[in-house]
Amino acid sequence: MMQDDNEPTVQSRRTIAALSRELGRPDRDWAILAEGNTSMALGDGRMLVKASGVSMETALPEDFLTLGIGETLQLVDSPGGGDDEVRALFDAAAVSHRRPSVEALLHAVCLGLPGVDVVGHTHPIPVNALLCSPRASALTDGSLFPDQIVVLGVKQLLVPYIDPGLRLAQVVRSMLREHVAETGAPPKVIYLRNHGMFALGASDREVLQITEMAVKVARVILGALAAGGPVYLEPEHVARIDTRPDELLRRTVLSRDAHAEQEGVTL
């Protein structure tokens, strides 16, 4: 049974469930069984997050629970917070047998960033092949081709392995603050070593685009490693692509198409 039935929330549930099924498509190998998670800010201080144990491939609107973003971030920031506090927070959000995943903490951290309204967490095989190797940093050492820069930006975040839960959320929150202070904006991708990736977008469609591009980048790197190693673009070329008017237009069009699709607008 849904926790509320106001129309904006019902539509948000449909949207995040549809995104989950796209990210969990079997032919993509981005998430199998109950792997991965998705979330969406509701615009009222709450978020929808997929319940633990639910398969992305078959997620339905009623498989999403609501959590207060601010309340969750208070727990993440609390020096005295621990497993008992997390359990109490999740018990309050539980509906029937459904409970939030422990990764809901990291989803709240991501949704607390400016311009981030939807988050998709997946374990794509090409991405994890690198994240589970000594060459994980190849994903963030530089940019390989223009479309990577247009969709993913210039700088992504690579996080060392930490067991999912409160400690991981706390470390990533600190790293994100440093990233935003350095670059002026949140990353589009957070890579977690030996775990998976988080795509941070302003819409469901943008999260899908980011995930698609991150998977392509991983495949290109794996191919390049087999051919002698990746050759990254020079910093001046990266900066030029990141600011070229035609590339900025493509980025705007992609973003506009994503928002239009979310709103059901035909362009």
From TrEMBL:
It holds the Pfam family Aldolase_II. GO terms for cellular component: cytosol. The keyword Lyase applies. Residues 14-222 form the Class II aldolase/adducin N-terminal domain. Keywords: Lyase, Metal-binding. One of its GO terms (molecular function) is metal ion binding. GO terms for biological process: pentose catabolic process. PANTHER family: 3-OXO-TETRONATE 4-PHOSPHATE DECARBOXYLASE-RELATED, FUCULOSE PHOSPHATE ALDOLASE. This is Class II Aldolase and Adducin N-terminal domain-containing protein. It comes from Mycetocola miduiensis.
